[in-house]
Amino acid sequence: MVAKQFEELDAWQLANELKEKVVAILATSPAKRDAEYCDQIRRSTKSSPANIAEGFGYYEHPQFARHVRIAIASLDETKNHLTDGISERFWTADQIHPLILLVRRARAASVGLLKHLTTTRAPTRWKKPERNGR
Questions:
Q1: Domains in the chain, number
Q2: Which pTM value belongs to this model?
Q3: Residue 16, in any domain of the structure
């Protein structure tokens, strides 16, 4: 099946879900007192779905793949920030365990998308019918 909108991609859906859950945990944890930390983790979590969406808009696989690679790197950065939050005592490992699992799922979906983009060609765009034989 060919996705017609970026929201149909599992990689985007999982990355976006992660973004929403990270925003929620930041709002209720001691991390909210550390503005620099919050800014860093917000940037990394927003980057993943944003880059997948932007790459989708390019349509051609090489450009899309470049943005998916950035999204994967941002997921890794998000995981790093989440684990740093344990040592900073913003949350416990048990509290962020579901988020770490979501990072892994989003990363796996993104890697699968990247594999598809690097081993296939973009589908031929459909052509608009000509009017009156023109």
A1: 1
A2: 0.89
A3: yes
Report how far residue 134's alpha carbon sits from residue 131's, in angstroms, rounded to the nearest whole number: 6
State which residues form the domain around 40.
6-119
Q: Kindly provide the b/e burial profile for residues 14-30, where b requires at least 16 CB atoms within 10 angstroms of the residue's own CB.
A: bbbebbeebeebbeebe
Is 131 within the bounds of a domain? no
Kindly give the confidence (pLDDT) of every residue in the chain, 134 residues in length, as a single tens digit, with 9 standing for 90 and above.
Answer: 678 899 999 999 999 999 999 999 999 888 888 889 999 999 999 999 999 999 999 989 999 999 999 999 999 999 999 999 999 999 999 999 999 999 999 999 999 999 999 999 887 765 555 666 55
Phi-psi region of 101 (alpha: psi -120 to 50; beta: other; left: phi over 0): alpha
